[in-house]
Automatic annotation (TrEMBL):
PANTHER family membership: ARAC-FAMILY TRANSCRIPTIONAL REGULATOR (PTHR43280), TRANSCRIPTIONAL REGULATORY PROTEIN (PTHR43280:SF32)
Record-given protein name: Helix-turn-helix domain-containing protein
Entry-linked InterPro entries: Homeodomain-like_sf, HTH_AraC
Top-level lineage group: Bacteria
Regions that span the bilayer: none
Keyword Transcription regulation set for record: yes
Keywords: DNA-binding, Transcription, Transcription regulation
Domain HTH araC/xylS-type: 110-208
Record organism: Flavobacterium rhizophilum
Amino acid sequence: MKHFSEDFNAHFLLFKSDFVKKGFVKSDIMEELLFINPDYPPIFDLEANDFNDTLYKFEKIKHETENQSPFCVEVSRLYVLQILYDYNRTCEICLLNSDKLINRQYQVVYEFRKLVDKNFHKLKTVKEYADIMHLSSKYISECIKNQTGASALSLIQNRIILEAEFLLKYSQLTIKLISNKLGFTSTSAFSRFFKGIKGISPDNYRNKQEN
């Protein structure tokens, strides 16, 4: 540490990936949060408010760990998730606002994901998003495949499934109401969609969570 000044201070957060994957956030979402994009800047400045907020979360995790209060693990996990989301959001903003030439495909993927997160309950096809973005479905699909390794359609479907799982686990809504909320034309259409991806019907999935 001889190369650092006396006022240098660092906080390290060490955890295994399984620690955050035990929460209610879907596993593949966590994989994305834990993945370090090679285009992300290794060092970046934070605004004072963001810095203080991040420091607070680190200190809360330390407090929970040292005091072993009830639900300390669950509370710490939530703080870690917040830090991961904050980190990814800050890095993406740094990339998009960078003076250097930003990878066009990365910009397309970034915009596509924002639109999906906002409209997944009513837009179900790549073409619908392509029309909004004034791009071809083929180009968007190529960008997403190159940047993430996944298909554009799978990003849409995974977002719908994530919401469906959350509603089935934590709400008292009927399958019919969940189907309507997610923009499906019928309960049977929603059930076919859910079972096609999860390999289990919405009813059986809910019952499994309750047992």
